[in-house]
Design a protein that fits this description.
Chain lengths: 115, 116
């Protein structure tokens, strides 16, 4: 049972346009969400996160939106650059209390930004 | 560079063997997490240690075990290896702040295990 779903395995956009990557989750206990970017032969790199008390978080060209009622989050990249081409993973974590922060990952979306 | 180091980068071994993967967390991080990434399963959480103690367990097989040492580095031991254990194994670390839910995890480059 996949608790975090990224339904688009791939996305292709033109340089300078907006990239929108989507993620859905089913576990209502999740209240912290992260996006990671992964290049081939490297580990995932943290990009941006959002807590369930917010509905938007911005960091430069990256914005994450959270719709708790729909159990949906999205990552917007504006403007997209060829260097953004990578696999993007959505991840979620519940708060267990203490220091337990197990992440559940989606299967990833391969973003290709064409020059 | 995330500051998390993993050794070795690549490991090739035979079925039935035992291997040890090593992880050094970022300076100051108390939590270490292990993940397995196989082709069809994506990134799966295996186990978490916080300041030397096991804190959470995921889909970790009984043939696998881990520990975190006093200097906070961690080892993942995989025994009685099977072909299906071939995967990328990632270690991540985070501050492991007690309370709250903002422990961002920083990943190492991974160890690619091939079981022949």
């Amino acid at each position: 049972d996949q608790q975090v779903k990224q339904n688009s395995p791939s996305l292709s956009v033109q340089e300078g346009r907006i990239s929108i990557l989507n993620c859905d989750y089913t576990n209502s206990m999740f209240d912290y969400f992260l996006w990671y970017k992964k290049y081939p032969a490297e580990g995932p790199t943290f990009l941006i996160s959002i807590s369930s008390i917010k509905d938007k978080n911005e960091d430069g060209r990256f914005t994450v939106f959270l719709n708790k009622s729909a159990k949906h989050l999205s990552l917007h990249i504006v403007p997209s650059q060829p260097g953004d081409s990578a696999v993007y993973f959505c991840a979620a974590s519940p708060t267990y209390g203490g220091s337990n922060y197990k992440l559940t990952f989606g299967k990833g979306t391969l973003l290709t930004v064409n020059p | 560079d995330s500051g998390v180091t993993q050794t070795p980068k690549h490991l090739i071994t035979a079925t039935g063997q035992r291997v040890t993967l090593r992880c050094s967390p970022r300076s100051g991080d108390l939590s270490v997490y292990w993940y397995q990434q196989s082709l069809d399963q994506g990134l799966q959480f295996l186990i978490q240690y916080y300041n030397g103690e096991e804190r959470a367990k995921g889909n970790i097989l009984e043939r696998f075990s881990a520990q975190q040492f006093p200097d906070l580095h961690s080892e993942l031991n995989l025994s009685s290896l099977e072909l299906g254990d071939s995967a990328l194994y990632f270690c991540a670390s985070g501050p492991g702040t007690s309370g709250g839910n903002t422990d961002t995890q920083y990943f190492g480059p991974g160890t690619r295990l091939t079981v022949l």
